[in-house]
Amino acid sequence: MKKINAGLVGITGYAGMELARLLAGHPHMRLSMACSRAEAGKRLGQFYPFLESLPGSDVVISVFDPKEAARLCDVVFLAVPAGTAMDMAYDLLQAGVKVVDFSADFRLRDSATYEEWYKIDHKQQALLPQAVYGLPELYAQDAARTSLIANPGCYPSSVILGLYAALKHRLILLDDIVVDAKSGTSGAGRKASVPTLFCEVSDTFRAYGLPRHRHTPEIEQEVSLLAGQPVCLSFNPHLVPMNRGILSTIYTRLANPAMTLEEVHDIFSHTWKDSQWVRILPQGALPETRFVRGSMFCDIGLVVDPRTGRLTILSAIDNLCRGAAGQALANANLMCGLPMQSGLEHLAPLA
Amino acid sequence: MKKINAGLVGITGYAGMELARLLAGHPHMRLSMACSRAEAGKRLGQFYPFLESLPGSDVVISVFDPKEAARLCDVVFLAVPAGTAMDMAYDLLQAGVKVVDFSADFRLRDSATYEEWYKIDHKQQALLPQAVYGLPELYAQDAARTSLIANPGCYPSSVILGLYAALKHRLILLDDIVVDAKSGTSGAGRKASVPTLFCEVSDTFRAYGLPRHRHTPEIEQEVSLLAGQPVCLSFNPHLVPMNRGILSTIYTRLANPAMTLEEVHDIFSHTWKDSQWVRILPQGALPETRFVRGSMFCDIGLVVDPRTGRLTILSAIDNLCRGAAGQALANANLMCGLPMQSGLEHLAPLA
Amino acid sequence: MKKINAGLVGITGYAGMELARLLAGHPHMRLSMACSRAEAGKRLGQFYPFLESLPGSDVVISVFDPKEAARLCDVVFLAVPAGTAMDMAYDLLQAGVKVVDFSADFRLRDSATYEEWYKIDHKQQALLPQAVYGLPELYAQDAARTSLIANPGCYPSSVILGLYAALKHRLILLDDIVVDAKSGTSGAGRKASVPTLFCEVSDTFRAYGLPRHRHTPEIEQEVSLLAGQPVCLSFNPHLVPMNRGILSTIYTRLANPAMTLEEVHDIFSHTWKDSQWVRILPQGALPETRFVRGSMFCDIGLVVDPRTGRLTILSAIDNLCRGAAGQALANANLMCGLPMQSGLEHLAPLA
Amino acid sequence: MKKINAGLVGITGYAGMELARLLAGHPHMRLSMACSRAEAGKRLGQFYPFLESLPGSDVVISVFDPKEAARLCDVVFLAVPAGTAMDMAYDLLQAGVKVVDFSADFRLRDSATYEEWYKIDHKQQALLPQAVYGLPELYAQDAARTSLIANPGCYPSSVILGLYAALKHRLILLDDIVVDAKSGTSGAGRKASVPTLFCEVSDTFRAYGLPRHRHTPEIEQEVSLLAGQPVCLSFNPHLVPMNRGILSTIYTRLANPAMTLEEVHDIFSHTWKDSQWVRILPQGALPETRFVRGSMFCDIGLVVDPRTGRLTILSAIDNLCRGAAGQALANANLMCGLPMQSGLEHLAPLA
Hints:
By secondary structure, chain A is of the alpha/beta class. Chain A folds into two domains: 4-130, Rossmann fold (3-Layer(aba) Sandwich); 155-319, Dihydrodipicolinate Reductase, domain 2 (2-Layer Sandwich), CATH 3.30.360.10. Helix content of chain A is 30%, strand content 19%. Chain A is built from eleven helices and 13 strands. In chain A, the strands form two sheets. In chain A, strands 8-9-7-10-13-12-11 form a seven-stranded mixed sheet. In chain A, strands 2-1-3-4-6-5 form a six-stranded parallel sheet, sandwiched between helices. In chain A, helix 6 (136-143) links the parallel strand 5 and strand 6. In chain A, helix 6 (136-143) runs parallel beside helix 11 (321-335) and helix 7 runs parallel beside helix 9 (215-227). The longest helix of chain A is centred in the middle third of the chain and has 15 residues, at 154-168. Chain A is globular and about 60 Å long. The relative contact order of chain A is 0.15. At the B-D interface, helix 1 of B face helix 1 of D.
């Protein structure tokens, strides 16, 4: 079987690094192009010593050129900032190359919302109708039929999967949802900056971006679609002194305050019983980010408090794998006609 | 000036360790007795190498005996488990020794609530009326007149101080308070156990104790007193891969959803303007646990979200100093007629 | 192809946990038995949430019984303490089961040395001649012909691989070798103990076990064999506040102090040019433990200091994968007639 | 008693941050000037939230001007890069202000050695004779008589104190000294850079700067002076995923290989018996960086290995306090006629 050729634009960030790791073990896809203006000319194995001697390490980093990309790649992953990705995507699609965009450029169906939250003009609105929001549990069929994936944000992936069963089965009040999300520091990116230095993050804890983190409208868009009506919620990210992982603690009120943990657990378990990657933990068990480290799993724990009538949903993912590169790869698999889990199925978490 | 003699029962835990640190620098109080059954016979400086050559390091660890305590001490700190402290406190008070109890034995005014949440019979209910809940910002005057301090829990200290101004000024709805609290691992104590091993905590994040953590009734008791009516809230602790510090993110709804951040900030700032240890951060700033490390400060940040009508209060303390040993020392100072801040005033945070 | 059935005795430690991870992705071997007295009766996926839904998670933990092991397994991994493994190995071999022993029981060819350093009587000395020291780079051919593997210690794996080329090519003086080794905390095991609690390890650094760590004679045995004469060296382990990884900094003196880095680098590179897992870094580059995390790689960096005539060799491995479970799996592969790298070839480091 | 006025140039680094902490609790010295070009105009308490409400927090950050410094300060601490400090020091001394320089500009008595290792022209060689190398245990009397302190480097402080007794008493061979030093990440400074990002340091371990770290000649200068002859040694720094602390493991050979641990320990203990800050640990005990965190202590542990004839000395300090700001303050105290330990005596380690 001929291997699918994949390009990666934006090799220097953590999501790009993670994708290089995953592609090194993919049986049917290989890295054929890696782009970075700053690092052009280096072998990828030189830039990423962990990759040395593995598939992909001999690729020489180059400056992005859509024509060259079209010559070398069936699919290109864009791990570049919001605002930069949209035009690259246009050029690639024009050249007949499939695109998985890690940025937010095509995630929001309403370009006005994008412009309000990102303060960036949307120059490729015409592409929005064909962009598929690449959360496989919701949109796998659409992903298989498009050439442009808007790869979901890390926080939204954890929150939407966490809320899905509760929304589908109308278990909760829609006007009282609070998300307290905690992320490892890789989520802040790999740019030189003082606030993410080791000594500024280690042995400390803080919130950031309150109350207007950019993942808010993305979460609200998908939650509203699932709920069948507009939902406004409170999203509050925090920075954890760890490398990888997101735990979202989602506070909701039960529509029926008398509902028991057993009943809620049954509904969640039934909803996800055929899922490959969403694991509903046993009653009483709570998820931990280490148990999904380096994998595609989303672990969900449930708490019902009869004192307050609240259902608390805890959702854990790996922000770089499930929340970025792994999910991107699942989407690329779907677009390229491979099984969704190809290259991802043997990822036992590195606990 | 003659130094006050202080005893410490339960030297092997983190709160005891922190108290030994603080007493080593106290100008008017000194450690005169240190008790631990398991470590009896060792010099304290041998058991705690960090203390070697400092005041207190030559104290020989002994087995607790109330008569000996009465001979050696003006005040005794009990850093022993709930259920063990109550009888020790009785014996010490009988012998004329002042007591600061780190455990929950005297924190809850209603012994039935204590017995429900702690599953321990309360054998010293007669002492409850004289026990003062030792949060100095609320009860400093009472503390100066008693011989028995119920030293507050770490989480409750952060939450009650965080909510105080909002409750006093009736800014928030009382039936929709959710506390998402995050603690460093020293809060889990210094017992040999697998779940708090380095490799079980490092590079991971998890919630625990949901939905019935024992600090819940303590928080509700004081919040209800401040609100003037019973309050039931949701309290949700999480474990952070760091040593020290608590950040409590407190989600509330504004009674008046049109209230602005500026208005809320003015009220909080005015409420705490004469406080030595509560610092209201500037508008837009959020607290971090490192900025209070090793100190008595409680840093409070405020977020108002007009989209949701919510006021989010973020409160950061050091769980071992402000949340245990430092607060205990402030209470002991008050009971012994010293200035509240004696031995605590030069504690610049080790950021 | 029928899968090889593998048993694991001692599931609760970190090496056992790592082996469970690796077996979950092995194409030709599967976990058929998991033993632990303390956890018997639980499903493995219940005990290890990270494993849930993956191959092996449905195995029910049982108490070790050699007859049952013979019924269920082609090969058994013993992840039990030194002194316990030897008799288990005897019983399994008698029952026709291949054995990979993670303990030191069969590593030292001289049982007197074993007894001196481990203070344990060796009750299975008759098995020593057939035991193969399972460092594949040295003994792969022997491993393929035996039924009993003494799986190397984590530190020795890093040190022996680091020194190999220098010894083979007589580059260094044999009477002046100092190893300063640093290990992640998983190397200390998964037993409840105060010294390995998070708060006792985080944000601190210490040496331990000096000057008589038990891995010393194991290193000296293999180094002496490579050197062709007895070598006595200084081995000094340290504990790093990280989960995984070993970096050994090996200080040697060049036999020819005028030798250049380029010359040394050429010799090392040539020696290892066909190795799958030993990577000689480019001149000037130094290894980091993260670049081998979760993999079989041993990364080696070289420093020549003309001022002092010293060659410093830095060797990095993952202590749980290359230093324990992964290496054990390579040995089991060899014993069972599989390619050495089966199940290990797609382990791109989780950097 | 009138307070001494102290200025600090270079407020944004970790050493400057630590000095601000220490000055906040100094009974006889106060921060009267804080300089940083980048942060000029901010209140210090705004820039360093941990300092808010403490002495010094109201100082407004300014651009350095020697005349203004002379007006405001009795002594100025220079926490600026090597090469920048020398001219500032000249200007301040001309203006009659005492200077403590944190950089290396005045540490090396031989300007040629400085220029060789730092690749910077020395433009103030005339000041070298009056510069005192500010390790109080060696040069306290000189410090009391000068106006210019070359504050020692962090690594050298730990190594020189560790070796002092062995050199003074000629216990070791001078041609076989290897230092394997490990430092917390604050030692790498507070500049925005990718290699010191949290995710590049956490859960990994690496060496750096081998074999020509700039602290080498500084160590050799003082070791040679103590030995009475030129000493060339091997110095090898490593980066630890922790904030603060240095542990130097110093490998030496005993001049008399039959010397026992007891004999060596007696000599070290006797040498340091009157020292306020150097603590010789009991036989068998090894130092840990946490036991000196935030303090002036240098903890020394001793290992004698009769197998190899080696004496291994382990020396632990806090790199920011003893290794930079605290030592600087001790020197400033001496220059200003205060007791050396003023403002430093109640620094119990934050273990």
